[in-house]
Amino acid sequence: MKHPDYEPLKLAQLARALGVNSQDYPQFKAALDQLRQAGHVVIGTGNLVTLPSLAGQIVGTFRANPRGFGFVTSLEPNSHGDLFIPPDATSDAMTGDIVIAKVKRKGKRNGQMRYTGEIIQVLERAQNRFVGTLSKHPEGWIVQPDGSAFFEPISVDDVTAKGAKQKDKVVVEILHWPTEKYLARGVIIEVLGRQGQYESEIKSIIRQYHLPSEFNTDCLEQARQVAAGFDGERPDGREDITEKVIITIDPPDAKDFDDAISLEKDYDGNWMLGVHIADVSHFVTPASALDEEAKARGNSVYLPGRTLPMLPEALSNGICSLQPGQKRFVKSVYLTYDELGNVISRKFANSLMCSAQRLTYEQADRILEGRTKGAKPEVIDLLKDMQTLARVIEKRRTKNGMIHLDLLETELVMDKSGRVVNAHPADDSYPHTIIEMFMVEANEAVASLLDRLDVPFVRRIHPEPDALSMKNLAKLVRAFGFALPRTPDRKAIQDLLEAVKGTDCALAVNLVVLRSFEKAQYAPLHIGHFALASTHYCHFTSPIRRYADLLVHRVLQCYLQNRLIAAKQDAAGQDLTEIGKHITFTEQRAEDAEKELTTVLILQMLSKRTGNELDCVVTGLTNFGVFVQSRKLGIEGLIQMPDLGPDQWKYNARAQCIVGQHTGLSIHLGRAIKVRIISVNVPARQLNVAPAEPLTIAVRRRENKKARKPKKQKRKTHR
After folding, report:
1. Of 11, 236, 513, 646, which one has the greatest count of Cβ atoms within 10 A?
2. Are 691 and 639 contacting, i.e. CB atoms less than 8 angstroms apart?
3. Which helix (DSSP H) or strand (DSSP E) does residue 331 occupy?
4. Handedness of CA 76, 79, 81, 85 (dihedral sign)
5. Which residues make Cβ contacts (< 8 Å) with residue 344, sequence separation at least 6?
6. pLDDT of 704
7. Is 461 within 8 Å of 528 (Cβ atoms)?
């Protein structure tokens, strides 16, 4: 009902729109009645269900815009949506602050009441420390914050106290918030180093996102003791599979190998896949110092050129990592398949394994292409069998509705100092798909087992997109020249993605589809995973780097030890919902930090290449310009309206295009375009570009070429 396109419906109509069946309708009706009694929804004229209208004041989260205005998203949903705050009414609020806003009526337009707001109180500050660059101005020293949380400079005094110098990266703490007349005032509490240097930039991101870096003494001591006490020669009651041919395939710079693969045929000629996962739960016990720290971190953070691990390196790169030639404790999932890739049996075990060889994805791809120099014969045979089975599994999962998005991932090329000198699309060869298919199968098998045992556990859920988002997707896709049903199902989305493969608009279409989906998250709710077309799903295969997987390993261990009652008691003693929210937050934080540092490093490289050209594709349209994404670098840039060419350009939201009022030229999502770098603002994370030549000139040149082209004479046909 918060969706901007929601139109009030009667209760039964709303139930149908949400896919509620007749069996669940009484429960749905009771739930809606609870929402009505709490004041969250209103049943108005004609028994139409809607959100309450705006009250005189709202409490919500403020989101600032660089142009001075902002929006407040109410903590209680309302029928109006976000409240616009004009530049002179934002008070001293900053992005993320919880505020009270006074609501003002601005009259009606097209029959709809218009509202603006004024912030009258900041209830809670999102943060009071910022990372930025120090510079000297005639009025004094200022710090220009990085990113988009705070746009105005911060005035600072006594910079010598911390030894800060011009163009240093610093952390500043706010003492006095900004007013209409005065800048915010703060004090420097840490100097991170010179602007533009890799170490300074990575420290800036760590401080900006509050990422944990160093482990405390208790964690390090426990890790040392655990590592010292590990003896791979003592199986500890585990199945000894050290004679099996087992390999790992990982990126070239990986050190935490947490998954390995075996594959053989049983007596009936069926494939038996073994997915062997580092048994971190054996070493990290509940409520220990290591466990508490791993829970707080939630996951490892992979930044360009630096890893912030969830566990100390004695574990993550040591006794837990499935290094070649080393005996390691693992939890094994054995899946037996028929010729169509259907699972016909599952088995789970604690094992002792030894990796035969460590391969990178590129090495595995070369072997599959026939370049086998240096590879062991048994490894070559295993890889070929893995490829055969993976293709069968992929075919089955695709038939069942699995959706695969082709999104651009960028790999940075860095020199010894950490400076980015180049970037290119990351390797996406088929070995990536092989491992992905096997990991998904193992995750699904464990989730299905735990669901059948009726044990609460943290699942990986991906809710089905709502009907209005799918309706919007169909509308957007029409702008690309493709047709979708009004409410597309998985098959329709699959067909669309297949149709755009290899076209200029492929990236833009994949992004539009991604934005129409909900975000995957961690929760104990039984919702399933929409994109994978999976009824039961969890994360099990990466316990070295994800806390969710470690929790699932502990529940599986209870099953293997026949302690299911204990597992249910453990689950009752934990708030799995809150843990799920926390690790969903830490996962998103890690993704945002990696993305921002990648952007910073690429922008630093491009700041020295002003005037260079980039091959791009249009990925976004607004009333102030066109967003484009570089096909090679993956970075996004903005073409402002005046830079499109000599015309009056207007954004047509209904047709999803920008149109020149005089020439009639139009710009649509997915259009290929060559642009020139105009300027780079690293602190603001902005890349400004313009068409390599104004669009109107490019069209005129094409028309002139056509005019000059001699007409072909018709050949006479003699009968």
Report:
1. 513
2. yes
3. strand 327-337
4. negative
5. 270, 336, 337, 338
6. 57
7. yes
